[in-house]
User: Fold this.
Amino acid sequence: MTSTTDTNVPLEGPTPDDGLRAAEQSGPMLAADGTPLKRSLAKALRREKMRALMLIAPLLLFVLITFIAPIGDMLLRSVRNDIVSNTLPETVEQLASWDSTQQELPDEDTWTALYIDLVLAEEQKLHTRLGSRLNYELTGASSLFRKTGRAVGRFDTDVYTDQFTELDESWENAATWVNMFSESDVADALPLTARTWERWADYLESEGDVPAEEDVEDFLFTALYKDLTREGVDVSGLSDRLQQAAAAVPEFETVSLVEQFEDADEDWLDPAIMQTIQTYSPRYTSGYFLNAVDAQLTADGVSARPENERIYGILFKRTIFMSLTITLSCIILGYPVAWILANLPTRSANLLMILVLLPFWTSLLVRTSAWKVMLQQQGVINDTLVWLGLVADDARLVMINNQFGTIVAMTHILLPFMILPMYSVMQTIPPSYLRAAKSLGATNWTAFWRVYFPQSVPGIGAGSILVFILSIGYYITPEIVGGTTGTFISNRIAYHISSSLNWGLAAALGTILLAVVLILYWAYDKIVGIDNVKLG
Amino acid sequence: MADTQNTDAFVEFERVQKSYDGENLVVKDLNLFMPKGEFLTMLGPSGSGKTTCLMMLAGFETATHGDIRLDGTSINNIPPHKRGIGMVFQNYALFPHMTVAENLAFPLEVRKIGKSDREAKVKRALDMVQMGAFGGRRPAQLSGGQQQRIALARALVFEPELVLMDEPLGALDKQLRETLQFEITRLAHDLGITVVYVTHDQTEALTMSDRVAVFDDGRIQQLAPPDQLYEAPENSFVAQFIGENNTLEGVVKEMRGDSCLVELDGGEVIACKPINVSKPGERTRVSIRPERVEYNKDRLQEGAHTLKAEVLEFIYMGDIFRTRLRVAGNDDFVIKTRNAPDVERLKPGSQIEIGWLPEDCRALDA
Assistant:
């Protein structure tokens, strides 16, 4: 008995496809008008693609503008660090050549640069923000900057102002400075003064003031003094006023700025603050990420934080462990329910389905608060247990404000997300598979385990991914019922966003969380295959 | 049927009833016995109870009343997996997550048969259905016909003595169905297995079976070999359901032993063979097979009864001609003639005379 009808026996003789095959062998396939078939196909489909794009455009734009762009910007904050180099440009430049490992203070030029930067920052009220930023890395930096900010305007640098105006009254006049820097060779000869003047003038203009009408401040004279006393300064060919000043400066009375800083706050004498500024001077930093993995960036490079300061590793581990536990409990509780749903007659299944979906109709906060009522020590469950005599009144169970509470409440809240995909997959498994297995001699258990279960795995996979990803980033429930031991990394992120205002660290933690989820997703794809995930 | 009568029966249904809702009986008083090695087909329209009977035999449904026996032992309380009955399903029910070879090895594995033995049996079963080269494939990579062959091999691989088939060819196209029909009957006879086959396709039932049980309304209407079923239907349901049939309605006028006279509603009186009419005055349906009707006067046999007829339609079907006539007020009277050179092609509108032998004309219940 042979059968050629359903086995792939090659046909002999020409078939209609032979012509096409021949074309394929000799080059790209051509359409009737001679253009390559691929191109004419693309052309034919372009209209459809454009229409599809138009249809999704409003949503796409909405998501891009309100969701993806802000999140991208937020995540970039995890590496962005331009506040140091923007606020203290001169200091950063000076510190570039400073060897911080010597445990010595930087030279006077650096202190001058810091003085100039700080005065400008103080005028613009930027120094407190910088202080807060550096405070993440070095405790005390915030108050140091605030304190110094108040003092920096009263530094004894008026010594230079007085001596310059003694030489020539016109130094006091801002118009003189405006004119002086309109000549480009002056800027070449006096670079620090030129840069400082430019920053000052820019600031005044942004405030709506005219630089030529303002007072000339002490820090400008300090910069001028520094430039004129610099080795190899060449003022020949410049104005008489400058030549006169250049000739006079070697005799000037001077002020030690490092002492001025010391007077403002003795903490400046600790090299740590300058080291921190130096370490965090690049525009991009790995500092936030290192912080997020319990490490820190020091002058000597990357090092782990002291044992008692490590919290994020514990939090990440706890978040993943608890999410896995929640996912597992959802599988264990949800699988039988999904099974019942898939095997009941439609009418009863619909009724049961409403019960499964019922939690979606109640506010998340209400459900979580209900758990608080249920689980607390004076709560319903404890009361019942005490009443039944199972638990002594003075030994009531602690079921809330710990991991147990979080796991219970979140399993309850996320259960529908597990049941629904499992149900929709199980619905597609024909009952005849189980019957076939039993008719082949399998016991109920073997038939289930060898035949039904493998086919329901895609549903478990889909539900697990959904529940795991939802729970790993969950915030409200652990916040309410988690206490201190049951909180997730997301609670810490929220803390940094809204309380400590360390957005960079929050962004780094968020990025790591996102990466962890993506890695797990990738691993799942490798192990189970994402094609095996079915939502229906 | 009494027990004593069926001591050699392999499969036996005794007074079996089945109800799903407690109000309606899906199977009403089923009695059936099958000897070993028989190929029995349960044929009937959907909802006639044939699949329910099969499921009760397989153990997936329990009989509400009555006894089902396999090889003399009652199996009412034996779970399906202990019955040792092979089963082929309409949608094949091949396990999609296993390869073909794993599917076949499954019944052997659950029976704890050793690996080498298992492999030998799987190979033999695959060769038996000419699918030896497909062991490593997944069911989804096979065509419908190939899948059905694998399903068949899987139902046979653990050497059951009884195999149930639930419309196994329903999803296949005609040509493939015919090939597989032949293959299934050949395998069943070669292996000497007993087969209960459920179908609603009468051609399948007639060509494959040793005996056919025609189901309707929860009862077996007739249980007979295919030729008897076709040529000697015992009631008008069977006559209508099996093959094409012409029906003329009338009243019994006279009983004459093995023949009777029936006055048709049009007034003509014809002689018929009484099947389930017993006394004059009963209403009856007279059944005549289209191919037993002759219109060529030269060929009309001795004793043939003749009636006037008007040709309404002539349909050319290749091997045969199908002609629709008006006979005794019935517009749907069909005759079939072989396409032979000497056969006249009737023209619509022409008046002819048709005739048949009284033995071919059966007076059945109304």
